[in-house]
Amino acid sequence: MVMKNPDVEFCGYCITHPSESKINFRIQTRGALPAVEPFRKGLNDLMGVCQHVLSTFERSMKEFRAQKEEEMQ
Q1: Dist CA 60 CA 64 (whole Å)
Q2: Are 40 and 1 in contact (CB under 8 A)?
């Protein structure tokens, strides 16, 4: 999601160690834009995508259950 931002030149991450719950991000931007701005935007965009997937899944499950109930009657 961060790489979709046209102001971002590079975005990468590494996990320091499997037993640690830390992730290091490296974000390189074009110009003087601070890296934290596209990082925050990417996280917000990702939350929007996840919310869309969840709502689509829940709606489909509701429709599927209603269809199964109709078939059983």
Answers
A1: 6
A2: no
Structure tokens at 32: 């003087």
Cα–Cα distance for residue pair 57/51, rounded to 1 Å: 10
Q: What ranges make up the beta strands (E) of the chain?
A: 8-15, 23-29
pTM: 0.78
Cα gap 28→35, rounded to integer Å: 7
Question: Per residue in 11-31, pLDDT tens?
Answer: 999 999 999 999 999 999 998
Residue type, 65: R
Question: How, if at all, do strands 23-29 and 8-15 pair?
Answer: antiparallel
